Every structure is written in C-alpha cells, then in structure tokens.
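Teaching assistant's notes for section 4

Start the section by putting this record on the projector. Ask students to predict, before seeing the second block, whether YetF C-terminal domain-containing protein will look compact or extended. Collect guesses on the board.
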Amino acid sequence: MIDHKLKKTRLTRDEFKMRLKQQGITDISCLKKATLEANGQIGYELKPEEKPVTVKQMKELLDQLREELNLSKKRTECR
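Reveal the predicted structure now:
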C-alpha cells in the first residue's frame, strides 16, 4: 500500500526513508501516518507507543511511583 501511495508522489521508498531519517525517524513502522506537505516536506504522526515522553509526563509518573512506594512501605510497617 505504501508503495502505491509513494508512486503518486513520485517518491521512491528509499527517498521517503531518507527524508524521514533527516527528521529523526529511523523506522517506518513507528509511524501512524505520514503526509507530503505542499512545500515538499514530509509531515508525520508517530504511533502512541512511539511518542517521546515529556518532562511533565515523567515527573507525573515518578510522583505516582513514589506515592505507591510510600503506601506500600506504610502497609509493611503496620504489620
């Protein structure tokens, strides 16, 4: 399917991969979708599991883990 769509844009698979690599994407399977913009650039959306974690998300996760560890520690102290 991707080759058929690339043919419409006159891009080869290798050219497509090269353009993605220039944007830091090394594996096509990480993409949810890609588009060819009017200016010739490739726009893309990563699959949810491939998206980088933000600092805010990491802090929230660490806070959640700390809270769970504190609750676990308190339960063992009560025994």
